[in-house]
């Protein structure tokens, strides 16, 4: 640049500071920067530098574009879009808000009688109305009247401005004199004409166009050698410097080839760029016309207005002969040699004699033939993201909020970065957002639709053939996705009827031949393959030919799991539903049916190479995996429901088919549980659906909302103390990995808590306005059935959230309130509770100290049906003293740490609450109040669930007699109680009366009496059984196992600390003979009397348990088993025979590397391979002693 600067800027002050006047003079005389051109052959015109008068670029100056912005104008709006556009307004995409393109003023709430001009002047008197054609101040006529004015205004991004700064901001401009002034004048006028400067990339579909004189984004251009290897990256002045002899400019469709050639002509016409001004004539020619027999002069005259009669074949010949390399031909849309006009073929073939400068723009796949004639090859690479942002910033400078939304979307989606490859795509975004200011279509859909439209408009005379090739390429794309194929051979193309040359011609495929024996074909981006696949699926499903429909359904039915719809096929489905067609109904119907299918929950991880190209899908799959591998099927059922609902509503709205899909969506919502977070943004389609169809609020069985505050680190000192009593484990070196230090677990736990706290701190509101909006517009103000509201570590509510909470509570008939570590919160939300006292049916208070005000407020919940008080907290005495006030109470759950005398303060009238169905009592000490509990139970004839755990309760005989009178009882848990022989006899005597019992948990009861252990025969409806220690159980363990085989509905069997070898083998034999067919959980913990040989025999026999989901064979490390190879082999074979098994706990069993390798090999072939988990390591507060 410095070498070019010297001769062109001899009066530059900056240059004079660096070089002496003699050095400058000498360099000017000897300079030959371009072939055959020196500075002595140029003359100097003076121009004023660019000043503050540079205009602001505003795309909405064009009335046609303002009119296009009203495409999504609400039908119920009163103002006329044509009138608004005429008077300078464009639509913002929100409500009926319009904005003046000139002053930026916004107007809303239009009435039929409003006059746009008057309203504008009234609201914005300081700017009544600026003329909507700002460019008149820069009109060509005015430039003629003031020839000293700056002639060209170029807005470029930073790198372009830097590289041209030396040329554009100095007081002298070099322009070549020539005797053909009139012809030059006409050419300059033609290239400066708005029709030439503006590029309409999408034909008549939009009036959106970019004025290349005012706006041009940096292209990434690389020079290449004759072997097609890259040499260096060039900036624009360096690109212009390469223009000598024949320069081939290659690039993909829409990469900016035409824009660059036109920009070159525009710069030449302006006279402001000395590098281009070295040419005395510049002829821009589009070779898209197919009239091959025209002369060169005819081609030029037909494309440049005003040259007919002025430019003849003879005069052109004279110019070319005289000026040779001072004539520049810009040849655009070159396809192949035999398709170009003959005169262009001659121009290229004979240029070694004529020595003109030719720049030939050609698609990358067509460059092979022309490369042999090139003296320089330039390749346009992917369009820089900075250039895309620069263009959008200039085009939408009046809309900061819009630009912010674009930046957020670009920053959060790496796929979008990779697909924004060309200026065409940036223009496509601008065109779409001009027509749809608040459009919901995703960026990738906009881009890919635009590319197909661009390709079809490129060859309008072959539109039917283009559609045929597009359909065939769609079939190729669709088959490729289902076969995990992203590169294709000629045979692959032939199989689906794709003509490779045609697909390359239309830019639908790319061809790769370098260092390959056979060429490969690919789509230019994975998203484009998905897009064409989606178009093809839509074409098949919407066809009138039944054979095509069946073929489309075959593809669709293969997308049959949640992993597939959130992974590889998500975008195919989106693209298939990108327009209102019949296929949308079939696709959404198929999606909504997945929730009822068993195979839809099957987990099969997607190809990592595929997911790496789509970060959003990768994150969604990780979240899905967390839900899927959790122990709570209900939780991932809710998550899958939300996934389907979000996707289905999005597809319905984006295809403009929501009214047709609404009945299916409404039916799907019936009976589902949904989180209110679905509504946390008014941009979400599900939010929009509930607003458009308010009856949908009454269909889900329950809505849930969970809010989190700052969570504290967990206190693990108590379990550490408990573990330390067992001593320090001792293991051999090869088994040292069986013990993980608890500190690592604590650190990770605390890091997780800190991370969650930091993320939650970003949310300014617990209940943002969009979240409650659907409930404010419910039909007839009828209340929605159920809400679960849970708060964790939240102690106060800001006023705005409290107002929304009050509105939310008032919308529901039944409210479940669940508070965990939320001191003072009840008092903080007191207004919201007081206004809806009759709606609260369930209240759960955990580790939350209550004030007197809060206790009294809870007592005023007159319709309460369930009360749970749990955790480390002060005993809410006022609450317990007045329990009889809850006339509708059905459930009471008390789980307090070493609570004393609670049943001493519970009022006598509590026994009159005859609706009690569930009574759970944990960690409560009774002392002398045992008879009160017995009396209460005797009056609770509807009692169905009773738990008594970790207590000093001693009157078991009276308790069992009372329970025997409860004919509705289905579940009993009696654990950790000090029962003696008499108590156990009472229990055994009562069990035959409880024939409806389904769950019996007697864990940690010491059964000494052998006869009492035989009392299970009558419990034929039993589904869950938990028994534990005691001589009686151990002596009768085989008999108990045999009794269990007669419980056909048994789902859970837990036998801890009580089995011997014989009883263990009996379990395996019964299963092998067809028993335990419904068993899902087999828990045989701390059975230290069982030998390793018995376990080995047990593993060899155990099979034929189709529903077994979890096994637990835990052992204390003081009785750990170092597995022999034969035991491991039997265990692995056993697991392979249990098709539903996914959770195995074998803590206390020592495995070495070879053992685990054997397990992993089997796991790969197991039906639950993606879920199967073996847990065998201890988490311990001290490190083990290692025996070397």
Short descriptors:
nucleotide-binding; seven-stranded mixed β-sheet; 54 helices; NLRC4_HD; repeat; elongated; 42% helix; alpha/beta
If you had to describe this structure to a student in words, what would you say it looks like?
The protein is of the alpha/beta class and 1188 residues long. Among the domains are: 32-51 and 150-380, 3-Layer(aba) Sandwich (Rossmann fold); 59-136, Inhibitor Of Apoptosis Protein (2mihbC-IAP-1), Chain A (Orthogonal Bundle); 385-453, no CATH class; 1059-1188, Leucine-rich repeat, LRR (right-handed beta-alpha superhelix) (Alpha-Beta Horseshoe). Helices cover 42% and strands 15% of the residues. The chain contains 54 helices and 41 strands. It has a 17-stranded parallel β-sheet, with helices on both faces. Helix 9 crosses helix 12 (257-270), helix 31 packs parallel to helix 35 and helix 39 (769-776) packs parallel to helix 40 (799-810). The radius of gyration is 40 Å and the shape is elongated. The relative contact order is 0.04.
């Amino acid at each position: 640049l410095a070498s070019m600067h010297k001769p062109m800027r001899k009066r530059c002050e900056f240059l004079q500071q660096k070089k002496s006047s003699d050095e400058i003079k000498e360099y000017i005389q000897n300079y030959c920067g371009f072939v055959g051109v020196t500075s002595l052959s140029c003359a100097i015109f003076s121009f004023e530098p660019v000043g503050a008068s540079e205009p602001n670029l505003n795309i909405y100056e064009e009335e046609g574009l303002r009119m296009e912005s009203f495409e999504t104008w609400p039908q119920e709006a009163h103002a006329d879009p044509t009138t608004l556009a005429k008077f300078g307004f464009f639509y913002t995409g929100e409500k009926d808000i319009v904005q003046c393109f000139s002053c930026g003023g916004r107007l809303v709430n239009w009435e039929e009688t409003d006059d746009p001009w008057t309203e504008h002047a009234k609201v914005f008197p300081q700017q009544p109305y600026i003329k909507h054609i700002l460019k008149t101040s820069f009109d060509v006529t005015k430039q003629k009247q003031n020839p000293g004015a700056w002639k060209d205004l170029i807005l470029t991004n930073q790198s372009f401005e830097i590289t041209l700064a030396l040329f554009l901001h100095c007081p002298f401009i070099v322009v070549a004199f020539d005797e053909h002034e009139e012809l030059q004048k006409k050419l300059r006028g033609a290239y400066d004409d708005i029709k030439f400067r503006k590029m309409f990339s999408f034909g008549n579909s939009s009036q959106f166009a970019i004025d290349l004189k005012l706006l041009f984004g940096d292209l990434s251009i690389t020079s290449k050698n004759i072997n097609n290897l890259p040499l260096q990256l060039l900036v624009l002045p360096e690109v212009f410097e390469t223009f000598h002899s024949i320069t081939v400019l290659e690039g993909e469709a829409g990469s900016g080839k035409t824009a660059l050639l036109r920009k070159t002509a525009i710069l030449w016409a302006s006279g402001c760029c000395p590098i281009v001004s070295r040419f005395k004539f510049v002829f821009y020619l589009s070779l898209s016309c197919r009239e091959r027999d025209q002369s060169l002069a005819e081609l030029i005259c037909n494309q440049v207005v005003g040259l007919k009669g002025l430019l003849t074949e003879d005069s052109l010949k004279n110019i070319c002969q005289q000026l040779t390399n001072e004539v520049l031909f810009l040849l655009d849309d070159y396809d192949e040699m035999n398709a170009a006009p003959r005169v262009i073929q001659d121009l290229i073939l004979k240029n070694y004699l004529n020595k003109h400068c030719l720049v030939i723009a050609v698609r990358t796949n067509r460059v092979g033939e022309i490369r042999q004639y090139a003296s320089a090859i330039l390749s346009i690479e992917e369009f820089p993201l900075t250039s895309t942002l620069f263009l959008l910033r200039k085009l939408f400078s009046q809309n900061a909020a819009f630009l912010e939304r674009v930046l957020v979307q670009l920053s959060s989606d790496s796929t979008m970065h990779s697909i924004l490859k060309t200026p065409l795509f940036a223009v496509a975004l601008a065109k779409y957002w001009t027509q749809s200011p608040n459009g919901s279509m995703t960026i990738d859909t906009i881009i890919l639709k635009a590319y197909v439209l661009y390709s079809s408009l490129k060859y309008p005379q072959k539109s039917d053939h283009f559609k045929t090739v597009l359909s065939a390429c769609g079939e190729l794309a669709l088959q490729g996705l289902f076969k995990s194929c992203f590169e294709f051979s000629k045979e692959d193309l032939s199989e689906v009827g794709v003509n490779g040359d045609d697909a390359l011609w239309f830019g639908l495929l790319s061809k790769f031949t370098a260092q390959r024996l056979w060429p490969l074909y690919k789509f230019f981006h994975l998203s484009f393959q998905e897009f064409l696949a989606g178009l093809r699926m839509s074409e098949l499903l919407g066809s009138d030919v039944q054979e095509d429909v069946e073929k489309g359904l075959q593809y669709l039915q293969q997308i049959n799991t949640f992993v597939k719809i959130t992974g590889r096929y998500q975008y195919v489905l989106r693209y298939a539903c990108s327009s209102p067609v019949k296929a949308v109904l079939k696709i959404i119907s198929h999606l909504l049916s997945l929730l009822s299918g068993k195979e839809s929950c099957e987990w099969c991880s997607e190809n990592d190479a595929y997911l790496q190209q789509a970060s959003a899908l990768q994150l969604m799959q990780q979240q899905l995996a967390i839900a899927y591998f959790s122990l709570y099927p209900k939780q991932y059922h809710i998550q899958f429901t939300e996934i389907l609902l979000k996707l289905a509503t999005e597809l319905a709205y984006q295809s403009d088919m929501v009214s047709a899909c609404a009945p299916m969506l409404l039916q799907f919502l019936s009976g589902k549980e949904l989180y209110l977070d679905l509504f946390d943004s008014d941009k979400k389609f599900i939010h929009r659906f509930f607003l458009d169809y308010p009856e949908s609020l009454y269909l889900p069985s329950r809505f849930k909302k969970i809010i989190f505050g700052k969570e504290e680190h967990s206190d693990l000192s108590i379990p550490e103390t408990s573990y330390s009593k067992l001593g320090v484990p001792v293991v051999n070196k090869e088994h040292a990995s069986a013990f993980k230090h608890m500190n690592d677990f604590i650190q990770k736990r605390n890091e997780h808590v800190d991370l969650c706290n930091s993320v939650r701190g970003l949310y300014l509101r617990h209940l943002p306005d969009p979240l409650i909006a659907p409930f404010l517009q419910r039909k007839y103000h009828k209340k929605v059935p159920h809400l679960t509201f849970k708060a964790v570590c939240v102690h106060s509510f800001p006023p705005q959230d409290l107002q929304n909470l009050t509105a939310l509570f008032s919308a529901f008939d039944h409210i479940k309130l669940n508070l965990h570590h939320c001191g003072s919160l009840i008092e903080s939300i007191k207004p919201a509770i007081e206004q809806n006292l009759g709606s609260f049916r369930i209240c759960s208070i955990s580790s939350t100290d209550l004030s007197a005000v809060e206790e009294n407020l809870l007592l005023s919940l007159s319709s309460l049906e369930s009360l749970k008080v749990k955790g480390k907290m002060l005993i809410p005495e006022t609450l317990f003293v007045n329990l009889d006030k809850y006339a509708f109470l059905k459930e009471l759950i008390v789980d307090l740490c070493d609570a004393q005398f609670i049943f001493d303060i519970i009022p006598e009238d509590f026994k009159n609450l005859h609706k009690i169905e569930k009574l759970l009592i944990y960690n409560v000490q009774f002392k002398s109040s045992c008879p009160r509990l017995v009396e209460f139970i005797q009056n609770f004839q509807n009692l169905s669930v009773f738990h008594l755990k970790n207590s000093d309760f001693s009157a078991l005989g009276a308790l069992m007699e009372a329970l025997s009178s409860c004919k509705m009882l289905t579940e009993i848990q009696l654990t950790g109680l000090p029962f003696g022989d008499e108590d156990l006899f009472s229990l055994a005597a009562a069990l035959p009366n409880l024939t409806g019992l389904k769950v019996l948990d007697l864990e940690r009861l010491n059964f000494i009496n052998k006869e009492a252990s035989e009392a299970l025969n009558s419990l034929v409806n039993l589904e869950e059984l938990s028994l534990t220690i005691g001589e009686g159980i151990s002596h009768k363990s085989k008999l108990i196992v045999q009794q269990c085989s007669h419980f056909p509905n048994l789902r859970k069997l837990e036998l801890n600390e009580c089995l011997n070898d014989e009883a263990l083998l009996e379990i395996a034999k019964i299963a092998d003979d067809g028993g335990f067919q419904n068993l899902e959980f087999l828990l045989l913990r701390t059975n230290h009397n069982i030998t390793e040989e018995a376990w080995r025999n047990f593993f060899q026999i155990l099979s034929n348990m189709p529903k077994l989901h979890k096994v637990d064979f835990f052992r204390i490390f003081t009785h750990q088993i170092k597995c022999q190879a034969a035991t491991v082999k039997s265990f692995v074979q056993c697991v392979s025979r249990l098709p539903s098994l996914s959770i195995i706990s074998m803590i206390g069993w020592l495995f070495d590397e070879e053992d685990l390798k054997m397990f992993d090999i089997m796991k790969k072939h197991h039906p639950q391979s993606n879920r199967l988990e073996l847990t065998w390591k201890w988490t311990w507060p001290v490190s083990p002693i290692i025996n070397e």
